[in-house]
Amino acid sequence: MSDTKKVLSFAVELGDILLRNGAEVYRVEDSVLAILNSYDITDCDVYVLSNGIFASADEVTEHASSMIRHVPMYPTHLGRIAGLNALCREVCSKEITLDEAWAKLEECKRIPSYNFPMLIIATAIGCGGFSYLYGGTVLDALIACIVGAVLRLFLHFEARMGNSKTITNVLASMVISLTAILFYAVGLPVHYDKIIIGAIMPLVPGIPLTNSIRDFINSDYLSGSIRLIDALLTAFCIAVGVGVVITFAHFIGGGAYI
Amino acid sequence: MIADYIIQFIIAMVATLAFAMIFSAPKSELLFCGLSGAIGWISYSIISTVLGAPTLGNMIGSLFLTLFSRSLAVKRKNPVTVYLIAGIFPLVPGAGIYYTSYYLIMNNMETFGSYGLSTIKTAGAIVMGIIFGMAFPQSWFNTVFAPSCHKSSSH
């Protein structure tokens, strides 16, 4: 087939955007292969890591082409994954041509997230809810709501400074524990640890950790290790942030606050 | 007791729905994301308090929510990831990871070790639940839940 290169670049671009928005390794692999196969390119190999794609097609013909992509890890965007999945199905069933598909792919890339006020409300409610579920009282949950809103505001303004993920996590968890301990220090009858647990939920890498173990069990050991190390590093940063603030609170309060 | 579980169900649902928004789930699917989170949490909560087996609870919880997510994926023609990622959020050992690294930094090695092991155990149990849930043949879901008799969502 003469348009191997066109098909391959579309398939890899779709895989790239899927991976970038947090899709699993096997889904990316399956999607790229499905598109290639639907265009009768069966002599192909696709190797996907959690931050890279390697693909080659029709290696023995004169249309041989191969592609390598480096895909940095970004926050999960489920809306784009859903959109791309639908697009992939349309392409595979040949409902649309490749050119139309490229236009749709550009649209999928630009599916927006929720707007900022909605995100503040969502983070606040989520943090409060988890603080309650993990054993906090109703008052703890309410305070966790406030701390969650503060966290989202902080993340929003901190994003403009262009700090690395490490620094962002350390600073954000410091802000969380400072705010939580402040409420405790003014004398409210709250459990500051339950508030902190609820409020760090948007930061802690619970889902990367679970996904990394899923990768291990799917025998994608390399992807699993990459995600595992990423998860552990994130957790470590959060603990540093919280640890620093709590240690200082002990020091300043002499045990009175904590 | 029952009222307590109902409250937990509602709070887990609202909290999962809120976090699904942070993960930018499509607007039309938010309610279902919340439901799948609530189903996972309530199964975990009931099993861990009634049988006193939190690890089994994690596994059964994630098994139920995987099955629920797969049914929704077929019914609503979306990838299963949308419901699964949002739904496992209440179960994932976020607090465990935090406590583990916190006690490492506080130089409390005994507690660090026990939290670390229990975190890995929890994550493993959740993954086992997901794997069992994924092992059911896709055709079962297609015949029961597909909107038309046409071929439905992949995965």
Automatic annotation (TrEMBL), chain A:
Membrane-topology annotation of the record: Multi-pass membrane protein
UniProt subcellular location: Cell membrane
Sequence ranges assigned to domain Threonine/serine exporter-like N-terminal in this UniProt record: 10-248
Highest taxon of source: Bacteria
Pfam families given in the database record: ThrE (PF06738)
Gene Ontology molecular function, alphabetical: transmembrane transporter activity
Gene Ontology cellular component list: plasma membrane
Transmembrane segments: 138-155, 167-186, 192-210, 231-252
Keywords attached to this entry: Cell membrane, Membrane, Transmembrane, Transmembrane helix
Main location: membrane
GO biological-process terms attached to the record: succinate transport
InterPro entries from the UniProt entry: ThrE-like_N, ThrE_Dicarb/AminoAcid_Exp
Family label: Belongs to the ThrE exporter (TC 2.A.79) family.
Name of the protein described by the UniProt record: Uncharacterized membrane protein YjjP, DUF1212 family
UniProt source species: Pseudobutyrivibrio ruminis
Lineage: Bacteria, Bacillati, Bacillota, Clostridia, Lachnospirales
From TrEMBL, chain B:
Biological process terms in GO annotation: succinate transport
Superkingdom classification of source: Bacteria
A UniProt-annotated Pfam family: ThrE_2
Coiled-coil residue windows: none
UniProt membrane topology term: Multi-pass membrane protein
Domain Threonine/Serine exporter ThrE: from-to ranges: 8-133
Main location: membrane
Subcellular location: Cell membrane
Listed InterPro entries: ThrE_2, ThrE_Dicarb/AminoAcid_Exp
A cellular component term, taken from the record's GO annotations: plasma membrane
Presence of the UniProt keyword Cell inner membrane in the record: yes
Transmembrane segments: 6-23, 53-73, 80-100, 112-136
Family statement: Belongs to the ThrE exporter (TC 2.A.79) family.
Name of the protein described by the UniProt record: Uncharacterized membrane protein YjjB, DUF3815 family
Native source organism of the sequence: Pseudobutyrivibrio ruminis DSM 9787
